[in-house]
């Protein structure tokens, strides 16, 4: 029994209100980089569904940039570490790791020879450091700022120069090598968010929270013009700027919910992009990238907006995804994958898609606890104490909402009947979007499942017992007691023959529903609590996902055999679902989705 990973559906970039984010591309212009959590994602510019990941950081990553040679990537994190790793091959071999200061790295840049790096951020003893990438020895001093540095850029040719922008409202200009403070430029009156040299090195721009954009001479640091003096300039913080390859234009993203293209020679705006008819703070543009013919502006929501310089107005393509950990996953009747996350967002994914389709309408305002699907409807419950339905055909929530009266712990469906177990010892029966009836249990439920024929409701408890109730009159008809820890998840096989139960003691037990006895007790290869269990359509295999980041696939025909997908996710593997008998989709607290092909021998 073996597996192969077919795809990674990457999350959106991590964003933070009031801060810019860093996007960068490889020298050839085929791949772009960004960070989410501890992971650096590399996605194809043309086809963002092609994604790979780097998981070497032990804390949240903040920025990653390709060396101009294309052979290495340098990535920084919130603890001041810069890791330099190999892009050739799939091993991502670590070249060096350097802790440049104690604190968050906000930005870094390579020199044009791919030898030197300047990292800047929020260190306790200093805000910037210049060093050789292979030996980590110092190549100058990044001094002169009184507060955290947000951005750095190194002139891409000789004579070497560097420029930094800081929370102390100044832009500092350095001569190199070694890098040495030359002068402080005080044209801005608020936090400087971004500084960038043009590709030809002749000029650089600075952008700040005062809505101003200045242009300077690259060799001297002298001011040439204030671009933001133009009539249709930004009306809010300019978070990010990116140059066109020919050094004639600049793309800017702003807190005023627009992105603009500036003509440098004419010193005016030539295109403006809006991202919603009724924009909210989620449409603030906090990151930009211009590489070759690709222009990307990133919304605070994490959406990657592809722009066309010839067509203003709005993006030509939007790539969406989750930013926060995914908490539940289901397969819809349209064969799309539905995922719900920690922040209440629900997305639909095509199985080979470049991004997600966000479900519209009034959705959950808090964590999605569970998603289940039947026919053309996906059912969900969330920590906003609500049960909702969404239509698969138009990816929209239906208006009917059922208040659960307490935090839902689990959700199951069979033959159009939904069963919700809540934290206040209540099991609610919902039919056609309406609460039909409910019954109290003598214990707080921890998991629930309804048999495929709709006759039996299984309810898990903290004591490790599974109580079986008649669905018609709610009389208890049996108790299963083989689980040793709190029952965390339950699932009936599609043929109704088995009930799989996962618990906090890392065990998955398979019960025979005809005799209410243990059928499978060998499924014990996880090392932490089981988060979810799912059956294959033919009822021959069970998949389980766990807090230990692993996913296991178990066989009912050969109970001693299993497929172990180690480190399926960087964080907890929160969910798993069979797409067909030989393919599974998994979700993780790392906000990503993985697709695996299984080979059952």
TrEMBL record:
Annotated GO biological process: actin filament depolymerization
Region span, Disordered: 1-22
Keywords associated with the record: Repeat, WD repeat
PROSITE patterns referenced in this protein's UniProt entry, alphabetically: WD_REPEATS_1, WD_REPEATS_2, WD_REPEATS_REGION
Biased composition (Polar residues): 1-15
GO molecular function: actin filament binding
SUPFAM superfamilies attached to this UniProt entry: WD40 repeat-like (SSF50978)
WD repeat spans: 54-95, 185-226, 231-272, 319-350, 526-557
One GO term describing the cellular component: cortical actin cytoskeleton
Gene3D superfamilies: YVTN repeat-like/Quinoprotein amine dehydrogenase
CDD domains per record: WD40
Family recorded in the similarity comment: Belongs to the WD repeat AIP1 family.
This protein's name: Uncharacterized protein
């Amino acid at each position: 029994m073996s597996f192969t990973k077919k795809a990674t559906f990457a999350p959106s970039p991590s964003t933070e209100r009031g801060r810019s984010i860093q996007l960068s591309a490889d020298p050839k212009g085929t791949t772009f980089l960004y960070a989410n959590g501890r992971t650096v994602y590399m996605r194809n510019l043309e086809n963002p569904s092609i994604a790979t990941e780097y998981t070497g950081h032990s804390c949240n990553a903040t920025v990653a940039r390709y060396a101009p040679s294309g052979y290495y990537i340098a990535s920084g994190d919130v603890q001041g570490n810069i890791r330099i790793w190999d892009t050739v091959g799939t091993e991502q071999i670590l070249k060096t790791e350097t802790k440049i200061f104690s604190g968050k790295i906000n930005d870094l840049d390579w020199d044009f020879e791919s030898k030197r790096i300047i990292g800047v951020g929020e260190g306790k003893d200093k805000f910037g450091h210049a060093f050789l990438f292979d030996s980590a020895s110092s190549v100058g001093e990044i001094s002169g700022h009184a507060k955290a540095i947000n951005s750095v850029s190194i002139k891409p040719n000789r004579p070497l120069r560097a420029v930094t922008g800081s929370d102390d409202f100044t832009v500092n200009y350095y001569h190199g090598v070694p890098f040495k403070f030359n002068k402080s430029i005080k044209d801005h009156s608020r936090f400087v968010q971004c500084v960038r040299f043009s590709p030809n090195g002749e000029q650089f721009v600075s952008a700040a929270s005062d809505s101003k954009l200045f242009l300077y001479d690259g060799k001297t640091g002298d001011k040439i013009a204030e671009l933001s003096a133009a009539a249709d300039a930004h009306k809010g913080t300019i978070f990010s700027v990116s140059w066109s390859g020919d050094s004639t234009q600049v793309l800017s993203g702003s807190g005023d919910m627009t992105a603009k293209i500036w003509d440098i020679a004419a010193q005016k705006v030539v295109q403006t992009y809006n991202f919603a008819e009724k924009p909210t703070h989620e449409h603030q543009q906090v990151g930009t990238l211009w590489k070759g013919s690709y222009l990307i502006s990133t919304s605070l929501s994490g959406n990657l907006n592809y722009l066309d310089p010839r067509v203003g107005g709005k993006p030509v393509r939007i790539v969406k995804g989750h930013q926060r950990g995914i908490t539940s996953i289901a397969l819809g009747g349209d064969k799309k994958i539905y995922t719900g996350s920690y922040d209440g967002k629900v997305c639909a994914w095509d199985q080979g898609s470049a991004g997600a389709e966000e479900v519209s309408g009034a959705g959950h305002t808090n964590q999605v606890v569970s998603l289940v699907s039947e026919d053309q409807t996906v059912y969900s419950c969330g920590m906003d104490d609500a049960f909702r339905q969404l239509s698969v055909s138009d990816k929209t929530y239906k208006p009917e909402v059922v208040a659960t009266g307490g935090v839902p712990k689990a959700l199951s469906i069979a033959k159009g009947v939904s069963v919700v177990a809540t934290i206040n010892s209540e099991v609610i029966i919902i039919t056609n979007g309406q609460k039909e009836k409910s019954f109290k249990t003598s214990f707080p439920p921890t998991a629930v499942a309804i048999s495929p024929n709709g006759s039996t409701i299984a309810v898990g408890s903290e004591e490790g017992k599974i109580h079986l109730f008649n669905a018609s009159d709610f009389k208890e008809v049996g108790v299963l007691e083989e689980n040793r820890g709190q029952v965390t998840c339950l699932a009936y096989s599609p043929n109704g023959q088995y009930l799989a139960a996962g618990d906090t003691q890392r065990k998955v037990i398979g019960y025979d529903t005809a005799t209410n006895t243990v059928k499978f007790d060998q499924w014990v290869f996880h090392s932490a609590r089981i988060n979810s269990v799912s059956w294959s359509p033919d009822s021959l295999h069970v998949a389980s996902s766990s807090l230990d980041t692993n996913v296991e696939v178990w066989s009912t025909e050969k109970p001693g055999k299993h497929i172990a997908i180690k480190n399926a996710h960087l964080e907890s593997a929160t969910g798993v679902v069979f797409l067909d008998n030989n393919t599974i989709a998994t979700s993780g607290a790392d906000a990503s989705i993985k697709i695996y092909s299984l080979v059952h021998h």
